[in-house]
Amino acid sequence: MDPKVKNYLCNIEQLAEEVLTEKQQIIDFDKKRQSNHESLAKLTKKKKLLENNRKIWLCLGDFFMKVESKKAVELIKTDQKQFDSEIKNLNTSIKKKSQEIFKLQGKANLVAGFNLKPIDQNITRPLKLDK
Amino acid sequence: MSNFLSEVKDITRIERTAMHSHIQGLGLDDFLEPRNVSQGMVGQKSARKAAGLIVRLIKQGKIAGRGILIAGQPGTGKTALAMAMSHELGEQTPFTSISGSELFSLEMSKTEAMTQAIRKSIGVRVKEMAEVLEGEVVEIRIERPESLEGVRKGKITLKTTDMDSMYEIGNKMMDQLSELGISSGDVISIQKAGGKVTKLGRSYSRSKDYDINTSNINFVECPSGELQKTKEVVHMISIHDMDVINSYSRGFEKLFLGNTGEIKQEIREKINEQVLLWREEGKADIIPGVLFIDETHMLDIETFSYLNRALEDDLSPILIMASNRGITRIRGTNYKSPHGIPIDLLDRLLIIATKPYEYEDIKHILKIRAEEEDVEIDEEALEMLTNIGVETSLRYAIQLIITSDLVSKKRKGTKVKLNDVRRVYTLFVDVKRSSQFLKEYQKQFMFFENNETEEKEKKEKEDENSILIEDLN
Known about the structure:
The complex is a heterodimer of chains A (about 130) and B (about 475).
Chain A: H1 3-45, H2 47-52, E1 55-60, E2 63-68, H3 69-104, H4 121-124
Antiparallel strand pairs in A: 1-2
Helix pairs in contact in A: 1-3
Chain B: H1 2-12, E1 37-38, E2 41-42, H2 45-59, E3 67-72, H3 78-89, E4 95-99, H4 110-120, E5 122-143, E6 153-159, E7 164-169, H5 171-179, E8 186-191, E9 197-203, E10 219-220, E11 228-238, H6 239-247, H7 251-257, H8 265-281, E12 284-288, E13 290-294, H9 301-310, E14 318-323, E15 327-329, E16 336-338, H10 343-347, E17 349-354, H11 359-372, H12 379-391, H13 394-410, H14 418-427, H15 431-441, H16 450-472
Parallel strand pairs in B: 3-14, 3-17, 4-13, 9-10, 13-14
Antiparallel strand pairs in B: 1-2, 5-6, 5-8, 5-11, 5-12, 6-7, 8-9, 15-16
Helix pairs in contact in B: 2-3, 4-9, 6-7, 6-8, 11-12, 11-13, 12-13, 12-14, 13-14
């Protein structure tokens, strides 16, 4: 096979592989994010627990830890923030890579405009763009 | 019952073939060389090559605010060329097509009509982003308190093929869900900002739940991947649409009813500012499109001056004009000018000339039109039609295609034959025969006065002489 063709195909395949891995990562992160969200919702409702600052069992992946409830809430919140930013980064990376793939295939016009910064919904909704 | 309904649907889908519906593109190869018969275009090679070059420049954004004039005799493919260019530019480029006389109406002034046409041809590309929760409903649980005044508690469990999660929901959300009639097995989408719920359908896995289903249920797959997704949608909207929406509180209704009236200049300036600001912030792309004005000789001197200035604006589309007049009077003045366009505007235009078609080209075009209109025509009849096209005009020959098809169907034939074409030729007269007939019998038509025609003939002779003199100069 012509080395240029080989190179070209290798590039596309590599990018595609990376995109698929990142997509799977997002799924795993979101799973954890959702379970964090559920536990946070339950914890913040239990006012008596938080007032007395009793210790609760917190499951961190493989092992359990006994932590003060207020600290537990903090921990989960920071975890959530971490997940949010990680997922955001992954999303931007996926977008860049898929645009690259489209460009290499000569279909750049189909993904034109995805570099644009998003406009707030309050402004776009009155424009009634979904016809 | 369902058979009857499907018949009704088919009737409403009748496709009407328009004059230029057979054109799919310019028919150029990768080196911008025109193929003789391709994508609905036939012959006219140099004009197509020029058009191809211009389309490429437009796509690269290197020709904003310029103008092109397609000039040639009637029936030489000017409008066809413009249609082909619009197809080549694709759906991403705004293409507005108007006829010169459309600008004159009682509802709005010429400059307003012109401004609207220009602004319809400039597009803005923006992106909307929303965080949504998309999944199949596993269960909705609402706990009603014993007393009527107590607060309701609600929980909804959503799942995708990879995960599931439970959310606590408030009163408004519960109301929305019950209004939409959402139950277990429905696939829904909830916007995190604003909490709007959209029902996407019912999950396939539940299609066998009931033996009989109503026809309006659409089954969708259970969503895969993560529950909380970021959705980005890119939209293209013309600046004119933005003007309309901002100038009336119920602007989007007026958008569909067509009548927009005059829009204030301040609103237009505000929109321009906003769009330019977005462009700077990286939130929008401005896409200059194409404004095609057919029958340019119908525009008058005021609209031409307006066009001159409009072309020099920051946001201006590419102007393509078509004219089939020679040296003729500019409307609104007593001066004559090539194509009826003032020389200062002509100077800014790139001119593409179209030539009359040859015998072989006309034959090809008639064949393509016959295919487009679903008419089978045999070789002899095609040759006769081509001869008619050469003698009279291409348009007349094209009109004869569908009419001779009707005649042949009447005698229960399958193909159009020579005699069908002959019959239609005698039934429908072309321009030359019609004017000849008029000259012989004009005394018998209504409102005929001898002196009128004599004066007209005198003036025509004078005009001819003046053109000849100008040519000599």
